[in-house]
Specification:
Layout: H1 17-27, H2 33-40, H3 44-56, E1 60-63, E2 73-76, H4 80-89, H5 105-115, H6 123-134, H7 142-149, H8 153-165, E3 169-173, E4 178-181
Length: about 180
């Protein structure tokens, strides 16, 4: 029997997770991260990290549910659709805020946090403190802040407890845990 040859082009790059999530978001706006992950064929945590990074860069809108029973949904910002599509079509990562000319420390910290596996010592503490300062008078739990910063809720809780100990945050509720800036 003759041997069959692979007729797949050798110069075709595999689709990136970002490309898959962008396409799923375009086809299913206002959808949860879990449904987008399923539609894109990527893991839920991968989709959530991508969406959170895009949200911090202003490329997508995150809509929180009114309570715990209503899930968070994601929608692509109108003009940003083309920017994401153009970049992900080439197989590249979506540019960060700094690469697009946004150079505020909060934007840079959020972008850096989503790209690095491990933060340097004390960096998460500063990210959490910055997050609370950006939302004065609002109360947040460790899970919500962890989602926003794309970090472990347990590590965020430790940073929050340290902020309380140092007088830079206030614990407003013990169960469920809620914190606000001081």
């Amino acid at each position: 029997m003759p041997e069959t040859q692979n007729t797949q082009p050798t110069d075709t790059k595999p689709e990136t997770a970002e490309t898959k999530v962008r396409r799923a978001l375009k086809e299913h706006p206002g959808t949860t991260a879990a449904k987008l992950a399923s539609a894109a064929g990527v893991g839920r945590s991968t989709a959530t990290k991508i969406l959170s990074r895009w949200a911090s860069d202003g490329l997508v809108t995150r809509t929180d549910g009114k309570d715990q029973s209503v899930p968070v949904t994601w929608t692509m910002c109108g003009e940003q659709n083309d920017a994401i599509a153009e970049v992900t079509a080439t197989g590249e990562d979506v540019p960060t805020a700094a690469e697009r000319g946004k150079d505020t420390p909060a934007e840079d910290a959020a972008t850096d946090a989503s790209k690095k596996e491990r933060l340097p010592k004390g960096a998460l503490y500063e990210l959490v403190r910055g997050f609370l300062q950006e939302h004065p008078g609002e109360e947040f739990g460790p899970a919500k802040i962890g989602t926003e910063l794309v970090r472990s809720s347990g590590a965020v809780n430790n940073a929050l407890e340290k902020l309380v100990k140092n007088g830079l945050a206030t614990k407003t509720c013990e169960a469920p845990k809620r914190f606000t800036s001081s």
